[in-house]
Amino acid sequence: MPHSLRICEKRATMADHRISDIALDETTIVHRNAEIERERAVAIADLIDENSFRLLRAAELGYGGPYRVRLAVPDGRLSLAIETEDGRPLQTLLLGLARFRRPIRDYFAIVESYYKAVRKASQHEIETTDMARRGVHDDAARLLIERLEGKVELDFATARRLFTLICVLHIKG
User: Fold this and answer.
1) How many whole angstroms separate alpha carbon 50 and alpha carbon 55?
2) Which one, of 147, 152, 157, lies nearest residue 55 by Cα?
3) Nearest to 104, CA basis, from 30, 17, 168
4) What is the DSSP pairing of strand 67-72 with strand 77-84?
């Protein structure tokens, strides 16, 4: 086992398989409105509060977490730079975003409709829009789990929150 991944006489527990810190590459974000900023803040807070994330390659080498993750979108690909809690690099995962383009576009369209509905629509219209938003979000979370298969084990709620943050990275102003 590499020295940088040794754990001092400590076995990884399920509680260690989590993200303890997450950051977004703010250089790719040009502008965020108040609603999107609120979505980002809630997703980060909820993710840090409760998540399940296990980097399989690191686990094979004896490191079970917790992890620090930095999300970025260089050259049209999603980058998840994953480090130990004390900042030692573990692995950077790159995912093509082609299969995420439509869910991201649909998510933004529905979020915009949702916030318009909240201001003017009936309760029934708000609920219908919110159901559509959850449906797109759920489908994208399943896609993210699928794309990370064999690299990362994560639960559905964690995938949903990560998808929200991936969307935030795609705001171009």
Assistant:
1) 16
2) 152
3) 168
4) antiparallel
Tell me the whole-structure pTM to 2 decimals: 0.84
Mean pLDDT by 10 residues, the chain (173 residues): 40 70 81 75 93 95 94 92 96 95 90 80 84 92 97 97 90 58
Tokens of 140: 């994208």
CA angle 45, 48, 53 (to 5 degrees): 140
Residue 66 tokens, joined = 């917790």
d(CA 119, CA 108): 17
Task: Calculate the CA 70 to chain-centre distance.
Answer: 10
**In terms of Cα–Cα distance, which of 113, 103, 68, 66 is closest to 89?**
68
Instruction: State how far the Cα of 11 lies from the Cα of 113, in Å rounded to an integer.
Output: 48
Q: Are 123 and 27 in contact (CB under 8 A)?
A: no
